Amino acid sequence: MDKRTVALLAALGASLIYAVNHTIAKGVMPTYIKPFGFILLRVVGATILFWTISFWGPKQKIERSDWARIIICAFFGMVINMLMFFKGLQLSTPINSSVIITISPILVFILSSIFIKEKITFLRTIGILLGFSGAIGLILFGNEIRQDAPNIPLGNSMLAINAVAYAVYLILMKPLTLKYHPFTLMKWLFLIGLLMNLPITYAEFNEVAWTSLPFHAIWKMAFVVVGTTFFTFLLNIIALKTLKASTLGAFIYLQPLLAISFAIIMGADSLTMVKVACSLLVFMGVYLVTKK
After folding, report:
1. Inter-residue contact 273 to 142 (CB < 8 Å)
2. How far is residue 88's CA from residue 9's CA, in Å, rounded to a whole number?
3. How many CA atoms lie less than 13 Å away from 83 in the CB half-sphere?
4. pLDDT per residue over 79-90, tens digit each?
5. Residue closest to 41 by CA, chosen among 158, 208, 278, 169
6. Among candidates 274, 265, 235, which has minimal Cα distance to 251?
7. Does pTM surpass 0.85?
8. Could you count the other beta carbons within 10 Å of the beta carbon of residue 274?
9. Distance spanning both ends of the chain, measured CA to CA
C-alpha cells in the first residue's frame, strides 16, 4: 500500500471517529462531566498514551528554532480548538457542531493563500462567502429551544472559533510533520497542551463524581480520550505527512453527513429547515472552494 493511500485511509478514519464523537461526547455533558473538565481528562489521557508509545518510536530531539511553532500549535490545537469545541457542543447541538466545523477547510484555504500564496479565484471567493453565510445562518437562526442546548447562538459561535483554531493548527503543523515522527510531535504537543489547559480546566475536572459514574458514561469518556483524542490526532498527523493541509481539511466535509445520520439514528438531534438550508450553503461553499 503506497503512502498516499495510507494517508487517505488515516484521514478517513479520523473523520469517522470525529463524526461519531459529536453525539457521544454530547451524551455525557454536562450531566457527568462539564466541558472543561472533559478537556483535562482528554489531554491527560492522550499525554500518557503518546509518551508511552513514544518509547517505540525514534528518539528525536526538537530543534531550538522549532519550539516556538510547537508551542503555538499546542495552543491552537490542544487548547483553543478543544475548549471551544466541547463548550460549544454543550451549549449547542450535534448537528450544528458537525456543520459549523466544515468552514474549517475554507479557512485552511484562506490561510494557505496568505502563507503559500495560493491563488484565490472568483469561484473560490463565491464559495468562501457561501460557506460563511451558512455558518453564520446557523449561529444566528439555529436557535430552537432545547433542554440540552441552553444557548445555541453562543455555542455555535464557539464552534466557529474552534474551526478557526483547527485551520490555524493544520497550516502551522505541516512543516513540522516533514521533519519529525508523529510520536515525537504528539507527545510534546499534548504535554504542552496539558500544562496550558490545567489552570483553566482543573476546577471542573475536580467536580466529577468519579466513584459513582455509570458504565455508559465511563465508556463514552474512554471513547473520547482514546478515540477522539489519541487516535484522531495520531491519524491526522500521519495523513498530514503526505497530504496537503487543504486536502486533509477536505475530509471534514464528510463529518456532517456522518454525524447527522448518527445523531438522528441515536435520537440525539433532529433536522429543521434552517439546518438543511444552512447545511446546503456550507456544502456549496466548500465544493466551490475545492473545485479545480
Report:
1. no
2. 28
3. 18
4. 999 999 889 888
5. 208
6. 235
7. no
8. 16
9. 27
